[in-house]
Amino acid sequence: MSASYPGAVNEDTRTQPTSPEDPVSTEDEAVIALAHSLLDAARTGDAAALLSLVDQGAPVDLRDGAGNSPLMLAAYHGHAELVRELAARGADVDLVNDRGQSPLAGVAFKGFTDVAEVLLEAGADPALGTPSALDTAVYFERAEMVALIEARRA
């Protein structure tokens, strides 16, 4: 499967280096580093680090430069229990990224039915996004994912 498919999540959450004309304060650098650690923890499934930051007040729906939230990154990388915990802490299960992709569509692209079940239980909309989760599952011939989505829609 090609990562250029519209269902692929952009994995580059690193900010571009600043120019000398665009100074960044030490406080800004600390905030940026904290955001990167939060997003990296979501991607790697480091629930202890990520949930601790969220529980201390970090925004659960923080977004990277491509509009991906921690829940999107955790879902896309197959971390079902982390997705469950983020949703329980108020993460928006339908927050689309800048390309119009929903977490459920990303999961359909990757084929993680366990994560899809968590998202659907949390109320994710399978018709949301471009392409939708259902369209993505059909396109990639993920019969189990299609059946799961269809069962929730019935």
From TrEMBL:
Keyword Lipoprotein applies: no
UniProt KW keywords: ANK repeat, Repeat
SMART domains registered for this protein in UniProt: ANK
Keyword Glycoprotein annotated: no
Matches recorded under PROSITE patterns: ANK_REP_REGION, ANK_REPEAT
Gene3D superfamilies named in the record: Ankyrin repeat-containing domain (1.25.40.20)
ANK repeat boundaries on the chain: 66-98, 99-131
Region (Disordered): 1-26
Protein name listed in UniProt: Uncharacterized protein
